[in-house]
Amino acid sequence: MTEGTKGILAMVIACVTWGLSPIYYAMLKHVPPFEVLCYRALWSLAFFAGILLLQGRLREIATALKSPKRFMIVTAAAVLISVNWFGYIYAISTAQGVEASLGYYIFPIVAVVLGRVVFGERLDRLQWLAVALVTGAVVVLTAGLGVAPWIALVLAVTFGFYGVIKKQLDLGPVVSVTAEVLILSPIAIGWIVVAGTGAGGGNDIKTHVLLALSGPLTATPLILLSYAARRARLSTLGLVQYLNPSLQFFCAVVIFAEPFTRWHGIAFAIIWAALALYSVASLRQDRAARKRASSVGTSGTTVA
Predict the structure, then answer these.
(1) How far apart are the C-alpha atoms of 146 and 31, rounded to whole Å?
(2) Relative to the CA of 89, which of 25, 125, 269, 287 has its CA 20 to 30 Å away?
(3) Which pLDDT does position 196 carry in this prediction?
(4) Taking the CA atoms of the chain, what radius of gyration do you get in angstroms?
């Protein structure tokens, strides 16, 4: 098995884990969403810290937070990812998984727009058309349902800005996320002790086991994503990532039988068309970049 194939397989496993996570969070509907978020942060901290301890890299956390500027950046990332996590947990606990999947379908287009606005990245015609189509889909869904898909927009925008923040951090993914949940941990502990149903033994053993699993469920896909990013082409990984919202959509409509209206059908069809255009544009850019790299390598060779 080639390194590229291993990377794609790792990405598939990560996306399947994310995509089927609604089944896991649905089993925690009886726990308030914010409390689930608090346990997720704490168990993720324990899991990530354990990994760094085994690797002998635990000191990197202190180093990562030593600089005031970096501390502020990590704090901003922590706030964004906590809002994203809460929005997703809330969506599943209130039977709005369709809208959650919509958010992760929209996210790649939001990322493209943020790349243009924040980093000055150029967009080609297909990418601009994809942006326009996604915008139109949101307008159609808002007009049809009489309310904007706020959960989807919050998930897409917070994850998009989270990516922007992470680009400014010269930290590995495990160290970065560990530092983020470490910053969140005092709030999480305080909430569980003061207001959480589990602080006084209100949660049964099964619930606590499920809550504890939120640590590896959060950590494992991120580790696999980091592994995949070093081995497979980004354009390929970009296509594979659509497996995540597709499985979320399947869980919401088929397993949980959430309502899927005509307006949802129209909006999703438009978004899928936009993602097809975006994928074509990404593949073109990847092909062009490889051609340029190949031509540079060829021109740099000499005949002895």
Answers:
(1) 30
(2) 269
(3) 61
(4) 21
Q: Which residues contact 252 (CB under 8 A, 6 or more apart)?
A: 22, 97, 98, 100, 101, 258
Q: What distance in Å separates the CA atoms of residue 15 and residue 8, rounded to the nearest whole number?
A: 10
Instruction: Divide the 304 residues of the chain into consecutive groups of 10 and give the mean pLDDT of each group.
Output: 83 93 95 93 94 91 88 93 96 95 91 87 86 92 91 94 85 86 94 68 83 92 82 74 93 95 94 90 77 66 42
Q: Please answer whether residues 102 and 275 qualify as being in contact, where contact means their C-beta atoms are separated by less than 8 angstroms.
A: no
Measured between alpha carbons, how far is residue 43 from residues 37, 164, 209 in Å? Answer: 10, 25, 11
Which pLDDT score is estimated for 158?
A: 94
d(CA 12, CA 261): 29
User: How far apart are the C-alpha atoms of 126 and 128, rounded to whole Å?
Assistant: 5
H/E stretch holding 205: helix 205-212
Distance between alpha carbon 75 and the CA centroid of its chain, in Å? 17
- Residue among 252, 264, 270, 272 at smallest CA distance from 142: 264
Please give the structure tokens belonging to residue 20. Answer: 């089927």
φ, ψ for residue 31 (rounded to 5)? -100, 130
Instruction: Please state, as a whole number, how many other Cβ atoms lie within 10 Å of the Cβ of residue 304.
Output: 2
Classify 203 as helix, strand or coil.
coil
For residue 264, what are the CA distances in angstroms to 50, 157, 243, 277? 43, 20, 19, 20
DSSP string, 106-174: HHHHHHHHHHHHHH-----HHHHHHHHHHHHHHHHHHHHHSS--HHHHHHHHHHHHHHHHHTT--S-HH
Give the residue from 97, 91, 98, 88 showing the smallest Cα distance to 40.
Answer: 88
Identify the residue whose tokens are 């951090």. Answer: 169
